[in-house]
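Input (structure):
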């Protein structure tokens, strides 16, 4: 597993050699066949393809995704968020190993559009999850570096799909809880877990209020190293529980699961993961999970629609001229913004 990067580099080198010899890249069907057969190099190559910022790579990526959707195993997706250093990767390592012990295959993806971390710390993730990263039933993929075409969240959802085609039935997505990405990650996960640490100053530790509201589960981490830390964690948990009971609208389904403990202690994480899995199983049976996914799909479509609509307007051949004309007019006339927008759009028909 530690070799995924090397595999990818090798694959790129092979691509260059093929190109030099006038041979084409493998087609989508061939690539997918290898992915389904468990070829990690093919999986890594496919992920690079969907993460690629090159428009030329998109057609192959899209046919591949189309094919992959027919082979994807049904997976449960976990989103794990929390401030930098809260212990997300450590928690994921413990949770991932527990899930593997129960017979699952685990893919770990990272979303970090904030560029708050460097390539160095991404390698750090692999070191921190070293046991998991080397396990034959796990696949650990650092966040995409650089620009992706459709956005980081879309690339992550697509990567998850490829992992599902490769047979991974538990997808754990780590995201730093300070940016924009949590909304999008929550939208693609079946359970959204917030990791906090005791004694984090103002109580909400720079975590956006919304994140606390959305959490399906809250775990106060690093409750180890003596009775004092335990007491601190308990106190912190009570504060969050109180805050959440005030904030939360009575959402569908069970109230958030609260807990505290140490990510360094496998058995603590394991028993908590079992509880989460139990809840997910109940949600599946009651139809709650299906409804959540349906709602998520609707939300994703809405946000894609908004983005695509803006893109199309901006790419309209007359847009630039109409936009400039409007901007030139605005200082001289009393024009209301909505009126201006209507005139702009009318001009594009
Ligand atoms: N004492 C203690 N240390 C922990 C615990 N969980 C994580 N750590 C340590 O905290 C540090 C940060 O852990 P990570 O798992 O990398 O935290 P993270 O949230 O993934 O960090 P970023 O990915 O950089 O945001 C490491 O040195 C861990 O060993 C815990 O439960 N108790
Ligand atoms: Mg981490």
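Output (sequence):
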């Amino acid at each position: 597993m530690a070799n995924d990067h090397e595999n990818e580099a090798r694959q790129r080198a092979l691509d260059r050699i093929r190109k030099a010899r006038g041979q084409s890249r493998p087609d989508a069907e061939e690539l997918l066949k290898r992915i389904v057969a468990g070829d990690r190099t093919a999986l890594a190559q496919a992920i690079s393809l969907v993460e690629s910022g090159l428009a030329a790579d998109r057609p192959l990526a899209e046919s591949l995704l189309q094919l992959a959707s027919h082979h994807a195993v049904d997976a449960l997706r976990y989103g794990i968020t929390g401030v930098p250093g809260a212990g997300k990767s450590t928690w994921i390592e413990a949770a991932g190993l527990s899930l593997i012990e129960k017979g699952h295959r685990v893919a770990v993806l990272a979303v970090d559009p904030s560029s708050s971390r460097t390539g160095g710390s991404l390698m750090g993730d692999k070191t921190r999850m070293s046991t998991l990263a080397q396990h034959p039933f796990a696949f650990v993929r650092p966040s995409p570096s650089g620009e992706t075409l459709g956005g980081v969240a879309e690339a992550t959802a697509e990567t998850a799909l490829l992992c599902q085609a490769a047979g991974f039935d538990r997808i754990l997505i780590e995201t730093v809880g300070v940016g924009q990405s949590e909304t999008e990650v929550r939208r693609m996960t079946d359970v959204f877990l917030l990791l906090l640490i005791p004694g984090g100053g103002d109580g909400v530790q720079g975590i956006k209020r919304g994140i606390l509201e959305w959490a399906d589960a809250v775990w106060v981490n690093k409750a180890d190293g003596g009775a004092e830390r335990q007491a601190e964690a308990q106190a912190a948990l009570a504060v969050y529980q109180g805050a959440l009971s005030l904030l939360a609208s009575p959402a569908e389904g069970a109230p958030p699961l609260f807990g505290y403990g140490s990510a360094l202690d496998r058995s603590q994480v394991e028993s908590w993961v079992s509880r989460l899995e139990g809840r997910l199983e109940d949600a599946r049976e009651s139809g709650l999970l299906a409804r959540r996914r349906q709602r998520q799909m609707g939300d994703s479509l809405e946000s894609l629609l908004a983005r695509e609509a803006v893109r199309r307007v901006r790419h309209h051949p007359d847009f630039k001229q109409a936009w400039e004309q409007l901007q030139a007019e605005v200082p001289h006339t009393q024009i209301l913004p909505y009126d201006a927008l209507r005139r702009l759009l009318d001009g594009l028909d």
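Notes: Residues 288-315 form the longest helix (28 residues). The pocket of guanosine-5'-triphosphate (ligand 1) is lined by residues 82, 84-90, 121, 128, 176, 221-222, 224-225, 262-264 (CB under 6 Å).
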